[in-house]
């Protein structure tokens, strides 16, 4: 029922967006709709549709990606450019400078983002130095240091995630998986690492087999496929290392858990409302909204051993540094009894 209602809202928003675009297109082309000699009022109305109404409808359609001022401004610029092509030249003439101003403004935003990248490069040696002096996991500490020293801008978060990926793929092989009474692995009793290795083999075989055939058909497409396959191999190698080197950790005041590069989270003990174990945890619906899984993949379906309910929404970091709030976490560890006893003591 909820899914149907959501789709209905999406359909209504899409119809409204099409009506805005089509009505503005036809307004200047249907003989039945008279345009006054001084058409500036009509054009201003169209510009408001393209720069305010349409961007808001698009943001509503893509609300899962979040509302940001930058996204709104980007859609405004796109709306002005679209208006330049839809509104006839004779009517748009008094406003012809607006698209260029909008493009220039967007260019300033891009320059500011490039400046952030230079700022990251400037602070990177100091961040790496702090990491070496810290006992914290790079998976958690590096993004936090980047936010503190540089910016929490989404572009910087993406770059930080990529740096982490290349670090784990290339520079982490001398490190050994940590061990301790407060550390708990999630993958050793599963086939998760084997599945990742199988995926790497499949990608390599596909690259060798298809790339040369595709190279003769379309050089550009073959290069694009090659780059994507190489990136995928690097990602899966890094993911294997991130899983091995970052077991679940119980610190003094919070629980630190991750599952490779795809998800990580810190749960303060004071934010834990209740914990379900055993059959209660196994029966909990994993498809429930606002639930995050820390369950290693296996050849067969596996159930959670522990469901942690929060007393407030907590943020988790997902693929490419994206953040999302969750109310519940489903967990499966290799040593359940020791994990249960240790968590009970912490609580």
Automatic annotation (TrEMBL):
| Keyword Metal-binding in record | no
> Where does the source fall among the domains of life?
Bacteria
Show the stretches that span the lipid bilayer. 43-62, 69-87, 99-121, 154-173, 193-214, 219-238
Keyword Transmembrane applies: yes
- Keyword set for this entry? Membrane, Transmembrane, Transmembrane helix
The molecule here is called: Beta-carotene 15,15'-monooxygenase
Organism for this UniProt entry: Sporosarcina saromensis
List the taxonomic lineage.
Answer: Bacteria, Bacillati, Bacillota, Bacilli, Bacillales
